[in-house]
Amino acid sequence: MSLTYINLSREQLLKELERVLSKERFEHVLRVEKAALSLAKRYGCDLLKTSLAALLHDYAKEFSDATFYQLMTDYQLPQELLAWNNAIWHGQVGIYAIKTKFGLKDSTIIEAITYHTTGQKKMSLLAKILYVADYIEEGRAFVGLDRVRALAKQHLDQALALQTAQTLAYLLKNQYPIHPKTLETYNAFLPHLKAIKSTNLKETL
Amino acid sequence: MSLTYINLSREQLLKELERVLSKERFEHVLRVEKAALSLAKRYGCDLLKTSLAALLHDYAKEFSDATFYQLMTDYQLPQELLAWNNAIWHGQVGIYAIKTKFGLKDSTIIEAITYHTTGQKKMSLLAKILYVADYIEEGRAFVGLDRVRALAKQHLDQALALQTAQTLAYLLKNQYPIHPKTLETYNAFLPHLKAIKSTNLKETL
After folding, report:
1. Among A137, B23, B106, B119, fewest CB within 10 Å belongs to which?
2. A190 contact B CB<8A
């Protein structure tokens, strides 16, 4: 199987991923691909693009901070990125390394990877699928996950909305910084959050 | 007592406030002034400016939506304000009516009123005092308030940080939109939130 959108075969890509990622993260990536493909079939998204977005999404996750600083310099990225950390950089900065390394040019895949941690106001079906799949893949385990998993089978936007609200609650409770894009996603998908038929959403949050 | 920074005496201003505000809100405004003056004495802020910022902060709170739309048009304010509501407008839009009506020109007072609902990244002492006083005034009653009141006597930035985190949690739990400025305040004051000596902050949030 060739991946079409990059300059490697699937086998070559998997080898490269195994080389740069820890065993745990490599397996996470495969589980995200599985979850994403399941959603792609359910909602009618291109399966090849879905595979590729999933396989590449954490490629930069284990880059050193020094590598990210170098990328920000090389590509003259906005100064405001300096205020953030790996959680943001592996998407928004890492994508520049991914594009170069793999010859990736597809704008939908690029955008999905860039904002897979935070989401954003307007998201393609592929971006939604990657964002949700990364959260619900079968290796994850935390409070509130079952509800998002169940919603993801029925209503992707509602799953995305609840995931974002739960992420905000998690960041807040743990006194972590919250990226403006995460808030943007929360506000944009708020109508879907409100539409969830639920009896104990407040407890989940 | 003349208020110096506006074209009315204190008595005239109080009469005007009574005219445009409901009895409940007028009394809230007086309680905010009391709380703000107490903080101003504790932290060394100009008492006259503090009084005036407190007395004027909710002047536009009972304006109709139509009035806010008119102000946005008249002053050509950013389109993005349209996505918000009274909670944001009475500060960020109302300030234009307040400046005109009272001949208010002091930039510190203007900024404190403009962002009294959301805070922002950089806040003057006056802005901090108004933001916190509005939250802790003696008529308020909600979970987590006692802790902010206690902190406000010892460490204004920590009180402000906790207030903002609690506000975010409240908005999230009630599925309300969250303004980017509120998030900006949370992120900017996060070091102060982390510095709070506390055993059960997670429960409060």
Report:
1. B23
2. yes
User: Please, which residues have CB within 8 angstroms of residue A14's CB and are 6 or more apart in sequence?
Assistant: A55
Q: List the pLDDT tens digit at each of the 205 positions of chain A.
A: 556 899 999 999 999 999 999 999 999 999 999 999 999 999 999 999 999 999 999 999 999 999 999 999 999 999 999 999 999 999 999 999 999 999 999 999 999 999 999 999 999 999 999 999 999 999 999 999 999 999 999 999 999 999 999 999 999 999 999 999 999 999 999 999 999 986 556 666 6
> Left if phi > 0, otherwise alpha if psi is -120 to 50, otherwise beta: which for B58?
alpha
Q: How far apart are CA A121 and CA B107, in angstroms?
A: 33
CA–CA distance, A107 with B108 (Å, rounded to integer):
45
Best mutation site among A88, A166, A172 for testing chain B: the one with the most B CBs within 10 Å?
Answer: A172
> B200: nearest CA in chain A?
A173
Q: Which residues contact B199 (CB under 8 A, 6 or more apart)?
A: none
Three-state SS at B104:
coil
Report the complex ipTM.
0.91
Instruction: Say what the pTM is.
Output: 0.93
Long-range CB contacts for residues A3-8, cutoff 8 Å, separation at least 24: A3/A48, A3/A51, A3/A52, A4/A48, A5/A48, A5/A49, A5/A52, A5/A104, A5/A105, A5/A106, A5/A109, A6/A52, A6/A56, A6/A102, A6/A103, A6/A104, A7/A102, A7/A103, A8/A102
Please, are residues A182 and A167 in contact by the beta-carbon 8 Å criterion?
Answer: yes
When computed from its CA atoms, the radius of gyration of chain A, rounded to whole angstroms, is 17
B197/A contact by beta carbon, under 8 A? no
* Interchain CB contact of A177 with B (< 8 Å): yes
